Amino acid sequence: MKYRLQPLLIVTISLLILSLLLIQGIVLSYSMSRILSDNTYEMTVELLEQKNLRLNERIREIRDIALSIAINKEIQEILAEVDRKDYYQQIRGNKTVSIFLSAIANSRNDISQIFIVTDRMEVYNYAHANGLIEQSLVKDEAFFHATEANVEGILATSNFFIRNDSSDKYVATFFRKLQDSGNKELGTLCIILNDKVLRNLLQEETEYHSRRYSFIVTGDNRVISPFAENPAGINELLQKEEKFIEKKIGNQDRDSIRLNGNEYLIILTSPNSYNWRIAQLIPYSEINKEIGVVLRNIISIGLSCIFLTVIVLYYFSKGITRPLRNLIQQMGVVAAGTFNISMRREGIVEIEELNTCFANMTDRIHDLLEEINREHQKIRRAELAALQAQINPHFLYNTLDLINWMAIARNAHDISRTVSDLGRLFRLGLNKGLDITTVKNEIEHVRCYINIQRDLSGHEISFKEEYDPKIFGFQTIKLILQPLVENSCIHGFSEGRKNREVRIMGRIDEECIVFTISDNGSGVDFEYLNFQLRKQDRCENDGYGIRNVHDRIRMQFGDKYGIKYMPAQSGTFVEVRIPQISMEGQ
What we know:
The protein has helices spanning 5-70, 73-80, 87-107, 142-147, 195-206, 235-240, 244-248, 284-287, 289-335, 349-388, 393-409, 413-430, 439-457, 482-491, 526-534, 546-557; strands spanning 111-118, 131-134, 152-157, 171-179, 185-193, 213-217, 223-224, 254-259, 262-268, 277-283, 436-438, 461-467, 475-477, 500-509, 512-519, 562-566, 572-579. The chain is of the alpha+beta class and 586 residues long.
C-alpha cells in the first residue's frame, strides 16, 4: 500500500499523542485510586478507632452493671433459697426481680432488656420484659449454648431469640453466670444492648456518607448489624454467609471485596478489650468520584493538544512535502532529457543538501553522457579507419607464400625462413578474428617475432626462453608477450651495448600463470611506469603498446591481473599475470 507523507505524518503523531495520553490517564487513574484509598483509610480508621473506644466504654459499663446485679444479695437469696412448693414466695420473688431489673434497664438508654435464665423456679411471670425466664424455653437455642462455655462474655444475637414484645432485632447480649457464696450456679444474667444506641454510634460518621455501611465484627468473626435496612443492600448477605468475614477479612485492617456486583473498600479497627472491631464498607465509586473530573480534564487537554498538533504538523509537513514535490518535478524534467534545471533554495538544511546533491548528480550525468558521446564518435572513427586500412588476410598469406617459394627456387634460404616466420606471425596474431588463444600459440607467436628480430639485429641480442609445459593448455588473450619483448629489443638497450640478452619465462603461481620478461639493458623507473599503468586516461595512439596489453588483460580477466614492473638490480623486469583458465572450460 502507498501513503501520502503529510496525512501519514499527521495521523501517526496524533495517534501517538492519543496513546500516550491514554496510558497517562490509566496510570494516573490507578495512582490516584491508590492515593485516595490510602487517604480514605487513614481518615476513616481514626474515626472508627474513636468509635471503638466509645463502644468499649459502653460494654465496660454494661459489665459493671452485670457485676452489680450478680453480687446483689437479694437476687442471690431469691434464687438460692427458693422453695419450689411455695408458689407465693416464687411469685413475690419474680416481682422483686422484675422491679429491680426494670429499674436498671429503664435508667439507661443503652439497655433494651435484662433477664435471668434459670431453672430454680416453678412459677415465672412473663408480664414484664425484664425478669426471670425459664431455662427450658431457651435451652435448645444456639444463644444459650454459647453462654455455657464462659462465665461472662458478649454475644452477637439475632432474631432467633424472641423478646417479650415479639419484635425481631439484630442485637448484642452481655451475659454473666450467677452464683451464690458457695459457687453454686443460680442462672445466667443476660443484658440485651439497645440496637438504637449501636445504630447511632455507627451512624455518627456515616451520616454525611449515605452509601457507606458500618457494622461490628466480634472475636469469633460474627457480624453485629443494627440496621434493618441499609443503602448497600448487604445486611442479609453479611448475616447469611457465616464464613464471609473470616475468608475476606481475617486479621487484616483493610481489603477490597465485591458484594452484590459492587466493589467496596472494607476498613477494620484494631480489636478492643472484648475483641470487637468496627468495620466499614466504602464504595470505590465514592472514593474515585474525583478521578472522573481529573480524567475529563485530561481528555479535554489531550483533545486540545491533538488539535494544536494537527495544525502544527500540517504546516511543518507542508514545509517538507512541498520541496519534495518540486524535487520530483525536476526529476521528471531530467528524465525527459532536459538537464538545464533550477532548484529552489529551501529553509530546511537536509532538503537543501538533497537539492544540491541532485543538481550535482544531474550535472555529472550530463558530463558523462557527453563523454560517452565523444567516445562513441571516436569508436566510429576508429572503425571507419580500420575498414579503410583492411587488407585481405588470404591475399597477404598467398603473397608471402609466393615470396617464400621464389626464395627457395633461388636458394635464398634465409629469406625463405624470414618470410615463413612473418607469415606465421601474422596468422597467429590475427587468430581468425578471435581474441582468445592458447598459451602455446601465444608462445609460438613470440618465437616467430624473436626469429625475425634475430635477423634484424644481426644476432646481437640473445634470447632465452623457459616455460613450464603445464601452462600450454590454458587460455590467454592474444598479443600479450610480443609487445613486451619488442619493447625490450627496441628501447631496452643503449646504442653500442654488447652482450644484449632478453629472457622470457612462464610458470604457474598458485591459481595464476605468470610470465616474466627481463633484459640486461639500461633499466627503467618502475614506479613511474606502474603509475602510468594505473592512470585512467589513455592516449589515442597507444595501439598494441604496453598500456593496451595491460588494459585488455584487466578487461578480460579482472583488475587483479595485468602487467606490473618490478624492481631489478640491472635492466628491466616486467611481470604479466593471468588466471588459469582451461581451453576446455572455454
